[in-house]
Input
Amino acid sequence: MTKKRKKTDDFTLLKLKLEVIEELGLEEKIKKLGWGGLTAEETGKMGGHITSKIRALEKEEA
Output
């Protein structure tokens, strides 16, 4: 049986998202082109980084 994960709140997700776009250097591109201007590779990297950070937060809370 898998362990049910606690849902991450919207504020935390937004905070992580902004942190990750800064780390990946995508701030200017998003400001100029919007979210739709990102490539699949860039959004994939964002998702991977955000997922890693969420898992790290969950580990800290456990």
